[in-house]
Amino acid sequence: MNTPNPLPEQSILVEYQKRQRRHWAICASVYFCVLICGKAEESPVEAVAAGVWMLACIPFILVNWRCPKCDAYLGRCFHRRFCPKCGVQLEV
Ligand SMILES: [Zn+2]
């Protein structure tokens, strides 16, 4: 997944913000799925659907939450000022 990306610095910041919004949205959906799974005895069908959704989110997170410049995975945090691999600035 290491593809050279000639994005200029401003484009890297914009692309990072897009990826960060998607990351927040998908993590929020996973959070609600965890809540639904907590009530599995009351609504087992919804709990199974929530579990399937959470599993489907894993590859999306692994693909989305990457540095726009070097494609390195950005880890478990929600904010990265700099890429841990290439050091490009991601947040102002
Ligand atoms: Zn990077």
Please, could you describe this protein's structure?
It is a single chain. This protein has 92 residues and is mostly helical. It has a domain at 9-64. The chain has two helices and no strands. Helix 1 (9-38) runs antiparallel to helix 2. The longest helix has 30 residues, at 9-38. It starts with 8 loop residues before the first helix and ends in a 28-residue tail after the last helix. The site of zinc ion has 8 residues, from loops.
Tally of contiguous helical segments = 2
What coarse outline follows from CA principal-axis ratios? Answer: elongated
Residues in helices, as a percent range: 55-70%
Q: Which ligands does the model contain, each kind named once?
A: zinc ion
Give the terminus-to-terminus CA distance: 26 Å
Q: Segments where pLDDT lies below 50 for 5+ residues?
A: none
Give the number of DSSP strands. 0
| Biggest β-sheet description | none
The average pLDDT score comes to 90
